[in-house]
Write a structure and sequence with these properties.
GO molecular function: kinase activity
Distance between the termini: 79 Å
Protein name: Possible Phosphofructokinase
Helix content: over 70%
Number of strands: 0
Number of helices: 3
Oligomer: single chain
Order of helices and strands: HHH
Keywords: Coiled coil, Kinase, Signal, Transferase
């Protein structure tokens, strides 16, 4: 009986420790996704600003390139945010993620509705 109790205590300690390690790993992964979202959303916004400046300067070609780069970063940013949300299991925390992702995706086509060039 004594061996059983010692084994049970060791097993419980192992379970508690592994759950703690999983929580730490999940928290780190969540943080990494949120950092990626912040970094890439800033890059996307910067590229949109540059695209607008190129358009004002009369260079539609350069504006389109910057807009496509902005789209790439915007999509990657929202994909990271969706992954963070899934880790955090917070479906209702961020509204319209898929809608925003679709908007960033649509910016790849410089002639699409909502494009700087339209």
């Amino acid at each position: 009986m004594r061996h059983f109790l010692v084994g049970l205590v060791l097993f419980l300690l192992l379970v508690v420790h592994s759950e703690s390690a999983f929580a730490d790993g999940a928290q780190e992964e969540f943080t990494n996704h949120m950092l990626e979202w912040r970094e890439k959303s800033e890059l996307a916004q910067d590229n949109l600003r540059w695209a607008e400046e190129e358009l004002k300067a009369g260079s539609k070609y350069k504006a389109c390139i910057k807009q496509r780069i902005a789209s790439k970063y915007g999509v990657e940013a929202f994909q990271a945010l969706i992954k963070a949300q899934q880790i955090n299991d917070s479906e209702n925390e961020f509204d319209n993620l898929e809608e925003n992702l679709a908007k960033w995706n649509s910016l790849r086509d410089c002639n699409a509705d909502g494009s700087l060039l339209n």
